[in-house]
Specification:
- By secondary structure, this protein is of the alpha/beta class.
- It has 2 domains: about 130 residues, HUPs (Rossmann fold); about 45 residues, no CATH class.
- The protein is built from 7 helices and 5 strands.
- Strand 1, helix 1 and strand 2 form a beta-alpha-beta unit.
- Helix 6 packs across helix 7.
- The model has no long low-confidence stretch (mean pLDDT about 90).
Length: about 180
C-alpha cells in the first residue's frame, strides 16, 4: 500500500521549521505533498506563485542533501484541505506541532477532519530550535523594521531577500508598515 500524506499550510512565508517537519515526515510516508493553500483569516504577504517557488527551492535542496526517504512534491490548492487530500488519495494530513498551544488547536481540527472527511492527522513535533518560529512572527519582524539578517537561522536566504525587496518597494504594504513603525 502506498502511503501518501499532505503537509498543508499557507507557508507565508515558509520557514526552516516547516522544512524540519517535512524532513521528519519523509521517514513515515512513501510520498508527501507540500500543499500550499490559502488562509482566509490572514491576508497573504507572498503570492501563491512566490510561496511555491520558495517551497520548490527548499524541497530540491532537501532532496539533494538527503535523497533517502519519501518522494516530495509541491502543489497549491484552493478550498478545504480535506477535499484536496481526498482528491490526492492521501492517507493522512501532516500537521507540525511546536508547543502545547498548537496541539490544543490542532487536536480540534484533527477530530473534525476525521469525523467529517474520514482522514487521519499525523502530528510531527518540530525540532527544538524551531519551537518558537511561526510565519506570523517572521512577518511581524519584517513589518516592524527588524533586522532581517538575524532571521537566517529561521528562514531560508531566498525568503530574507524577498522580505528585503518588499520593504524597499514603496508600493508594498510591508514597506509602508516598516516606515510607519520606524522610530522618529
Amino acid at each position: 500500500m502506498h502511503h501518501l500524506a499532505v503537509y498543508a499550510g499557507s507557508f507565508d512565508p515558509i520557514t526552516l521549521g516547516h522544512i524540519d517537519v517535512l524532513e521528519r515526515s519523509r521517514s513515515i510516508f512513501d510520498e508527501v505533498i507540500l500543499a500550499i493553500g490559502i488562509n482566509i483569516d490572514k491576508p497573504p504577504l507572498f503570492t501563491i506563485e512566490e510561496r511555491r517557488e520558495f517551497a520548490q527551492i527548499l524541497v530540491e535542496r532537501l532532496l539533494q542533501k538527503n535523497p533517502k526517504g519519501a518522494k516530495i512534491r509541491v502543489e497549491s490548492y484552493n478550498g478545504l484541505t480535506t477535499d484536496f487530500a481526498r482528491k490526492q488519495n492521501a492517507s493522512a494530513i501532516i500537521r507540525g506541532i511546536r508547543n502545547v498551544t498548537d496541539l490544543a488547536s490542532e487536536c480540534q481540527l484533527a477530530i473534525t477532519n476525521r469525523q467529517v472527511a474520514e482522514i487521519e492527522t499525523v502530528f510531527i513535533l518540530t525540532g527544538e530550535s524551531f519551537a518558537y518560529v511561526s510565519s506570523s512572527l517572521i512577518k511581524q519582524i519584517a513589518a516592524f523594521g527588524g533586522d532581517l539578517q538575524r532571521l537566517s537561522a529561521l528562514v531560508p536566504p531566498e525568503v530574507i531577500a524577498a522580505l528585503e525587496s518588499k520593504r524597499r518597494d514603496p508600493n508594498d504594504p510591508l514597506s509602508r508598515l516598516a516606515k510607519e513603525s520606524a522610530p522618529d
